[in-house]
Known about the structure:
Elements: H1 4-18, H2 27-41, H3 44-53, H4 59-81, E1 87-89, H5 91-102, H6 109-128, H7 131-138, H8 141-162, E2 166-169, E3 173-176, H9 182-199, H10 205-220, H11 242-245, H12 253-281, H13 292-309, E4 314-316, H14 320-325, H15 331-344, H16 356-370, H17 382-398, H18 401-418, H19 427-445
Helix pairs in contact: 2-15, 3-4, 3-5, 4-13, 4-15, 6-12, 6-13, 8-12, 8-16, 8-17, 8-18, 9-10, 9-16, 10-16, 17-18, 18-19
Amino acid sequence: MENPSSMETNKGFLERTFHLTEQKTTVRRELLAGLTTFVSMAYILFVNPSILGAAGMDKGAVFTATALSAILGSALMAFLANYPIAIAPGLGDNAFFTFSVVLGMGISWQKAMAGVFVASVLFTILSFLKVREIVIDAIPKDLKLAMAAGIGIFIAFVGLQGGGLVVGSKTSLVEIGSLTVPTTWLTIFGIFVIAILMAKKVPGSIFIGLVSTAAVGLITGLIKMPSSIISLAPSMKPTFGVGIAELPTMVDPQMWAVVLIFLLVAFFDTAGTLIGLAQQAGIMKNNKMPRIGKALMADSISMLGGSVMGTTPTAAYVESSAGIAIGGKTGLTSLTVAVLFAFSMLFSPLLTVVTNQVTAPALIVVGVLMVSALREIEWDKFEIAMPAFLTVVGMPLTYNISYGIAFGFLTYPILMVAAGRRKEINYIMWIMMIVFIVLLYVLNIVPKS
């Protein structure tokens, strides 16, 4: 049994490090929030190796690199910024790496990884020079609110799709999924469990819903029991340092187009996600994020570390909103995520029970919570309403956070000038408009799979 004085010492350390009392939270709440966030994003341990494996990379090595980069990023976010925001390899970047760069452009994964490494180095330099911090502070309040709401709708759409409630359609792009598929009903069960618990204001509603959904899936046989309990993490030897070894290939002009896209997409994906999550967690003060520079540095260092280990760029995870929704307010939440990722390297077979149908209900409910940011936007002023609307709908309809942000940045300065409010536009917004024009052009000239 743990010595009472030792327990008090541990609590004192956590209090001094994460300022729990000041943030009006508790150790128990933070641990539960971290567990919920981890459960919501644990899928990346299996999805990332699958996607990068399609590019020819060793899946086992990518699994380990994924876990280690998530541990590095989430721990840095905890201790540097004290934010309840987890970091791991981003889904959009790995898909672009495999399907557009490797398969579409015919570039080997080794050369493509060199591009990721160079983009990561530039990313870190921009963070160190506080360029990213300056840009985020310059974004108008209404666009920040629109980003938060857009991300909410985006992750709800991801949940609806992952749970089988919305599927692709050749005639109408999307349509309702088949209700004859048993796993779809597992998603529906989870939605109702979480929604009812939320309506009754039960603490930890989302996590209880996740556990309940997984349990029902195992009992009914819709989710397979794990084949084993413990499995040692695979070696990273096939991917470690490959990007650095391939640096001489950067003389190819085509590679710099790849670097530019990785750099800009990672820049604004994380910026948009951080702003959205900060709005949800109540971190924003006077339209600014305290310690934003440290948060961006944590993200940059983890991206650089991941590129060395053998994975695509990391990003702040929108699934952190699940933990924030049940009370996560400090870095203890993200530290918990880091610790659980470390454990997952030994108990990876157990994570197979966390299917899309298990996490989908949480994403849908969290989307509902994040959309509340819409109420604070000045909808009665069209020069603000139009960019905000395009930002919100652009994210889910293009299935890309950066595109949604681009739509807002491209229209906001123009409409503000048209409304006679030119003096209210920060010069950085004009620079960003030009940057997004370049980004959209490059994205459209790069061959697609």
